[in-house]
Amino acid sequence: MTIIFSFSNPLNVFAIHISKPIPYLKKTEFLSNETIDLQGWIKYDREHASDVWVQVSLEKQLNTLTSKNVTSNANGNFSATLSIPDGTEDGNYTVSVLSPCQKIHDNICINQLEEIPITIKNSE
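Request: output the structure for the sequence above.
Response:
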């Protein structure tokens, strides 16, 4: 009697790495001579995540006016201060906070973006 076992390759299964920024501002209206002070934390599997790279940008209609890269601290918190560029017109803008994937993690990672709408008014 001969018994033959056949094993097929299992489907490729990847865990998805999701580090989500949870940003907040103390206010959403700014004068053009003020700075935008953002705080937040990185959520990963319902916990705070440390050493996560975060891109913070001030944007208008997908055009970046200024940006800063920061890293979450040992407690998973981050902060960034953006200066509003000279000549910025009155209007509605967006503070975008991105937790990007590193290129080597493309197959197991999804970029996580949070946006906060703000208004900027001329200080003059």
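Strands lie at 20-25, 29-31, 35-44, 47-48, 53-60, 63-71, 77-83, 91-99, 112-121.
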